[in-house]
Amino acid sequence: MTNLILFGPPGSGKGTQALILAEHYALKHLSTGDMLRSEIKNNTDLGIAAQTYITQGKLVPDEVVIGMIRSVLEQLPPTINGIIFDGFPRTQKQAQELDQLLAEKNTAISSVLSLEVGDEEIVNRILLRGKTSGRTDDTNEETIRARMNVYREQTEPLLEYFNQQKKLVGIEGEGSIEDIQHRLRTIIDALAS
Ligand code: AMP
After folding, report:
1. Of 18, 69, 102, 110, which sees the most CB atoms within 10 A?
2. pLDDT given for residue 78 in this prediction
């Protein structure tokens, strides 16, 4: 199995790129952000609890997102080509749990592809996305800055964790969608060969 983590700050293009990669390589796309938004839309207890964190730009507690990922992984057929994780893991605890959950399935993360995008570009991209995404966390600059701070403080330190595992690959995340997709595929194709 080829299991990839698409890593990077909010607005770095993880979701856009993950969708195209998932289709191209026939990978299962797992986005905790999408899963949480679907819970909110369906008005579930989990969604109601998660909404407050999301609108404040904070991370939803580890137990909640790890529980969601665990139940999806338990239900995946063993025949799949692999998984592309988008927006997960975001904390050290999530990364360790993910390693363990995959080990229980006799598999592991193949590579962590980290999209590198500057701060001002991020704020602009998210505000632009907010015009059409319908996401309340995309329209308020204060929430966007809070998400970036959370990323720097809680998520970015994971780069060191992946680096120690020798799985980290940095990718220039600025440019056209096609250019970035091409850069990602070059790395992924090299993994398989
Ligand atoms: P995203 O769509 O990945 O930008 O996620 C939107 C929001 O959902 C984040 O700002 C967090 O509040 C929450 N969220 C998504 N994934 C996670 C995660 N792995 N851990 C904690 N919170 C998450």
Report:
1. 18
2. 85
Helix extents (H) in 76-176: 92-104, 119-133, 141-150, 158-164
CA of 182 to the centre of ligand 1 (A): 26
- Strands ordered across the beta sheet of 28-31: 28-31, 83-86, 4-7, 111-116, 168-172
Q: Which residues line ligand 1 (CB under 6 A)?
A: 10, 32-33, 36, 53-54, 57-60, 65, 87-88, 90, 94, 137, 147
Are 82 and 27 spatial neighbours (Cβ–Cβ below 8 Å)? Answer: yes
Report the candidate in 113, 67, 74 with the shortest Cα–Cα distance to residue 94.
67
CA of 36 to the centre of ligand 1 (A): 8
Q: What kind of fold does domain 2-186 have according to CATH?
A: Rossmann fold (3.40.50)
Q: What pLDDT digit, counting tens, does each position of 153-178 carry?
A: 999 999 999 999 999 999 999 999 99
Tell which atom from ligand 1 comes closest to the C-alpha of 150: 10
Question: In which band, very low, low, confident or very high, does the pLDDT at 3 lie, cut at 50, 70 and 90?
Answer: very high
